[in-house]
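queue> pop job 88
queue> type: inverse folding (structure -> sequence)
queue> payload:
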């Protein structure tokens, strides 16, 4: 089988960027050695043709021991890692074995069987990245991107609240009116949630937020005319009946969900706070929350290792004195939603079940 060692480098960016200049700059320097965690699979293919439905994580898994190492084997800088739209169907990923790197190229058929020409290509800004492949399967996280998920402690205390309904009703549904008290901060469209389980930090035992039970959405119809008055809202969607005491949060902008997986810039140690849905254990493709967020340097796309602390057992060879077994790392977590002190992640690859209290940390290189 032919081994590719010198491949023309071409990235497809959504803006008109000089790809050839980028390639010359990178070819002029010897790429640094990859970390041991980012080694290639012994049976990695020579190339992969990108097709619709591929993900960066899935393509990485064809070549690498750890898919989260994708940016390192491309030699990407931080800004390029954050660029969500740069690889498209029909492009070809080559394994440059001589340099230990992956290369991206665009094929132009010349009518000669088995011959592929490579050319730099820029992509019009009008494409808007809509046909770019995603980092992970979007359908697994889309339901969790626009809903509140959690309300942090300070936000919960200050959130506007439903205080009354027409005719003294306690519960109302779609099309009904509700009356709200609180600072709307000039907002007009809100999601309505009901506080759920309090989330406690496994280390400090302090409450760091509340799970948000999503109920529906409301639209402002009339603002209060007096200081002791209330704002009038109409319920536009209702997953279940709303009631007095339910809280409002602004509807967030449509999220960008196409991010390249990357390790955090610094060492992070966290714990699993909860498994979404109120169960005790999670497996692959399940959602969990952890007790670290943007204040700890976590951003969307961060990949962390999952594991659990080593057990303490008696040493049967030395008067049964206690000994601690090594921590066992068993999988990866892809962070897709970040709050100040809490993050939500998708369990990607595991060899064991995820439990509340398990370790979450920066991957060891």
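queue> result:
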């Amino acid at each position: 089988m032919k081994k590719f060692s010198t491949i023309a480098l071409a990235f497809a960016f959504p803006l008109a960027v000089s790809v050839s200049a980028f390639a010359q700059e990178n070819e002029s320097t010897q790429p640094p050695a990859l970390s041991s965690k980012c080694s290639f699979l012994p049976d990695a293919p020579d190339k992969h043709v990108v097709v619709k439905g591929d993900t960066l994580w899935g393509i990485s898994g064809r070549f690498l021991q750890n898919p989260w190492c994708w940016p390192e084997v491309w030699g990407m800088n931080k800004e390029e890692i954050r660029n969500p739209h740069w690889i498209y169907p029909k492009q070809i990923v080559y394994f440059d074995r001589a340099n230990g790197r992956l290369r991206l190229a665009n094929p132009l058929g010349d009518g000669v069987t088995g011959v592929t020409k490579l050319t730099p290509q820029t992509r019009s800004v009008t494409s808007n990245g809509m046909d770019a492949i995603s980092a992970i399967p979007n359908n697994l996280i889309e339901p969790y991107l626009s809903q509140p998920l959690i309300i942090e402690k300070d936000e919960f205390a200050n959130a506007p609240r439903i205080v009354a309904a027409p005719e003294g009703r306690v519960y109302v549904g779609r099309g009904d009116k509700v009356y709200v008290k609180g600072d709307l901060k000039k907002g007009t469209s809100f999601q309505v949630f009901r506080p759920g389980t309090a989330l406690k930090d496994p280390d400090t035992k302090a409450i760091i937020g509340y799970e948000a039970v999503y109920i529906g959405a409301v639209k402002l119809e009339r603002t209060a005319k007096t200081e002791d008055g209330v704002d009038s809202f109409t319920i536009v969607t209702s997953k279940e009946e709303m009631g007095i005491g339910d809280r409002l949060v602004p509807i967030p902008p449509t999220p960008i969900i196409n991010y390249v997986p990357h390790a955090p810039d610094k060492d992070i140690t966290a714990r699993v706070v909860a498994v979404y849905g109120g169960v005790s254990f999670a497996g692959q493709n399940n959602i969990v929350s952890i007790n670290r967020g943007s204040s700890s340097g976590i951003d969307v796309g961060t990949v962390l290792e999952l594991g659990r602390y080593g057990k303490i057992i008696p040493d049967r060879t030395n008067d049964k004195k206690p000994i601690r077994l090594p921590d066992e790392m068993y999988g990866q977590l892809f962070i897709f939603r970040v709050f100040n002190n809490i993050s939500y992640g998708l369990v990607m690859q595991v060899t064991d079940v995820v439990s509340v209290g398990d370790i979450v940390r920066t991957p060891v290189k």
